[in-house]
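User: These chains co-purify. Model them together.
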Amino acid sequence: MTSPAADSGEPSHEAVARACLTAVVPPADPLLGALLAERGAAAVWRALLAGESLRSGTGDAPDPARVERWRSRAAALDAETLLTSAADLGVRLVTPGDPEWPVQLDQLAENRPYALWVRGTHDLRNACLRSVAMVGSRAATGYGLHVAGELACALAERSWCAVSGGAYGIDAASHRGALAGGAPTVAVLACGLDMNYPRGHENLFGDVCARGTLVSEHPLGTRPTRHGFLVRNRLIAALTPGTIVVEAGRRSGALNTAKHTLELCRALMAVPGPITSALSAGCHQLLRDHRAVCVTGADDVAELVGHIGADLRSDGTAGPPPTQLDDEARRVLAGVPRGSGAGAATIALAAETGIDSALRCLGLLAAAGFVERGPAGWRRSDASRAQATGRVPL
Amino acid sequence: MTSPAADSGEPSHEAVARACLTAVVPPADPLLGALLAERGAAAVWRALLAGESLRSGTGDAPDPARVERWRSRAAALDAETLLTSAADLGVRLVTPGDPEWPVQLDQLAENRPYALWVRGTHDLRNACLRSVAMVGSRAATGYGLHVAGELACALAERSWCAVSGGAYGIDAASHRGALAGGAPTVAVLACGLDMNYPRGHENLFGDVCARGTLVSEHPLGTRPTRHGFLVRNRLIAALTPGTIVVEAGRRSGALNTAKHTLELCRALMAVPGPITSALSAGCHQLLRDHRAVCVTGADDVAELVGHIGADLRSDGTAGPPPTQLDDEARRVLAGVPRGSGAGAATIALAAETGIDSALRCLGLLAAAGFVERGPAGWRRSDASRAQATGRVPL
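Assistant: Joint model of the two components:
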């Protein structure tokens, strides 16, 4: 598998620096987030190695012990091994500005991931265009597992991708339901993509990899930590236009994802259950306090997070017909190959337009399900299927 | 059992006319409602018998066929039998202005009942002061029956009275739960109080009668009709500060009560259930559309419909201690007998205050659980229990 950066040869200095930073600074460090925004990754990395000041223009002087921990880890890091071992396992690096970067993460501001490690057949940005997060208890009830699986499958049949955390219980039922329904699924892990945590999900992760996407902020070899799980939850909320809490007790970790969802002003949904079940008490509290909307099926979800006008219908159709595209979008669509992929520059040339215009059109076409971005570049979705379901063939 | 009107001897002309009107005009007739407000019941009754115009000052000329139906029924009515047969069965007549009249019904305006036929040991107005309506499907699931019974019982233990419709399913489970929890319960029937409809509830109605209140807008002998059920629902909604839909399919009659509840600006609550149950779909729709608040227990309900400050605590206490009463209220309370009842005039005399002031204080004392109005007049609730639970001993 080639890295998205392979089009332009080796990963840039910026990308390498971001990759290295994922290995030495725990995710969602606001100081590093601010420094990256101010100076760029390569400069921050150089300053870290050189022992220069890491004071952000907007913040107080950083805790010296913390910076020293970063510096000693940075000094010990072998960047070459970091990147080649990932490439050997088919893990690609996705950084801000890459075509595969999910721009919705930018709303996290200084808590935005430094970079993402991604594995799997599906383009992460494309998969998340029409996605919904599904979260809930690890120790789910039979009811919760049934509901998660059925809902993910019904959403998948309407071409909605389920994003979850790869854990036991509701997470796993959601991933499996989405795959059963024929859509990709995205598992956001709190450890390195080679760790197979939890161990019992080795097969599930293999399936997700083959027909969806595994994502992590952590480089290979990172073990999961409590902090890792909590910051991972913000990523699940930020990747998707909405989060469904399927089954959660009053102190479930899923409520942490719900909190992030509300902070990001995304749609929060909860599935009700029997009031006699302690594992639905968290969902009911969200409903009672008017923080979540009650959803009982894929139609409810599509109405809440779907594209206005496209997803109100329950007949499974979505996206405008190609005849409604403007001239430029139609030329760009014509320039996208059907089988293998092509870079944006090639497509822009074929469409007789600029790269910026081509990228804008490609984004719109992807959102409408006409094209998708795979590892080898942009390619045409099967037109009839795209028109019927608004989404790519699997 | 004596009628509340017995204090002042025979029922007034107004009351008798209202009783007769319940027998000749179907409930909730807006023309009759307007006429009663304009002319009073005795004048309307005389005009009806005399064949005079029944045109309301605010409306169009009434349909002559409709008025003729009323007139012929009125001519055939034996008022004496109507009243004595009710009294023989222990059924009392309650009309607007009576101390037992639930003034919250006045919000129904021209749809207010002409009069109520009441049977049972508990004062209707008093029972409804601290009440909640519980409605739902007749063909309820085991889950719904369990939840209705438990919720009504838990509310009863906090001195909340359940008001329902006496039907099979959720209604019956609510009445039984309330009785099991030691509170009175009010069954609002869509037929005469001698009809025992549904037949299988003869024993239940006996229990409600012995430890609560049966109510109907219809005189003895009236069979239930579809129209009767629908207008009965407005009464359930109007008697209580809030309605809980425990279990309801998408087309359940309980949703009709929910509609009345919202129209009257009372609190609407719904109990969630498994999304796999069609009999919870009506509840979930109310929640999804933000028409009802999600409730999962007595604490939720008390917070929504309780008196501010008194019902936020879940330790079962309610009402101010007697030491917080003002001077006049304390004098009035001292004038209320402990065992049998006394009229407001007697109490006002003992308290050295006017009748109006005494009635105002008695209302407040009843709301706080210090006194109750029984068939023989006002009497003291057991003070310690009243202070502990805010309600009367049974």
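The mean pLDDT of chain B is 88.
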